[in-house]
Amino acid sequence: AQKITQTQPGMFVQEKEAVTLDCTYDTSDQSYGLFWYKQPSSGEMIFLIYQGSYDEQNATEGRYSLNFQKARKSANLVISASQLGDSAMYFCAMREGWNDMRFGAGTRLTVKP
Amino acid sequence: EPEVTQTPSHQVTQMGQEVILRCVPISNHLYFYWYRQILGQKVEFLVSFYNNEISEKSEIFDDQFSVERPDGSNFTLKIRSTKLEDSAMYFCASRDVTGQGARSNQPQHFGDGTRLSIL
């Protein structure tokens, strides 16, 4: 069964605007972690932000924030003030307890000048 | 900042040959991983390695694959008798498991990947 779902294969955003990339997950574990990674065209995987299942505050890292809605099992990534360099694939991932990380299918973000 | 390094960056191999992909995880990390990404597709988990043994493996990681930590720094993925469908980007990752919240909260740090092309 698919544990991580990213329903937006592609997204476009105007430079300097904010964009939300969706991620929903499925788990019966109480303890889990949610992660977002960025993969630019050069191919490397860059860790962006983490949200723990017990964290009461939404995670923020610079222009990245995670809109965590536990009851809805969603962990959307919000990028504020988009820049051209934000154009990339974005992967949502989840780790349940001691298990290993699994990734969603990804969303390709294109920032338009 | 410490990083995961992978060699080679690109490997071209004839079908049926064996390949070894090499990784040097971050030095104080204890959990190591291999992932595969076929061109244009999602990142797929292959195997995790902890305390000198495989911790978990996916259905992709069959008898064709093996991992080894031959010394204190390297972590290798061996693919025997390669097939055309093994062509992909292979990522190594490592994770720190010390400290509070080690169960879930430490991100995996990825290397830049090895692009494997099977001809």
Describe this structure in words.
The complex is a heterodimer of chains A (113) and B (119). Chain A has 113 residues and is mostly beta strands. Helices cover 0% and strands 51% of the residues of chain A. Chain A has no helices and twelve strands. In chain A, strands 2, 5, 6, 10, 11 and 12 form a six-stranded mixed sheet that branches. Chain A has a four-stranded antiparallel sheet with strand order 3-9-8-7, with no helix packed on it. In chain A, strand 10 and strand 11 form a beta hairpin. The radius of gyration of chain A is 13 Å and the shape is globular. Chain B has 119 residues and is mainly β. Chain B is built from no helices and eleven strands. In chain B, strands 2, 4, 5, 6, 9, 10 and 11 form a seven-stranded mixed sheet that branches. A four-stranded antiparallel sheet of chain B has the order 1-3-8-7, with no helix packed on it. Chain B is globular and about 40 Å long. At the A-B interface, strand 5, strand 6, strand 10 and strand 11 of A face strand 5, strand 9 and strand 10 of B.
Number of helices of chain B: 0
Task: Name the assembly state.
Answer: heterodimer
| General shape of chain B | globular
Give the % helix of chain B. Answer: under 10%
Overall geometry of chain A: globular
Average pLDDT of chain B, to the nearest integer?
A: 90
Evaluate the radius of gyration of chain B: 14 Å
Number of strands of chain A: 12
Unreliable runs of chain A: none
Give, in order, the helices and strands of chain A: EEEEEEEEEEEE
Q: Sheet with the most strands of chain B?
A: 7 strands, mixed
E-strand count of chain B:
11
* SS field, number of helical segments of chain A: 0
- Relative strand content of chain B: over 45%
The portion of residues forming beta strands of chain A comes to over 45%
Average pLDDT metric of chain A: 93
Structural Rg of chain A? 13 Å
Order of helices and strands of chain B: EEEEEEEEEEE
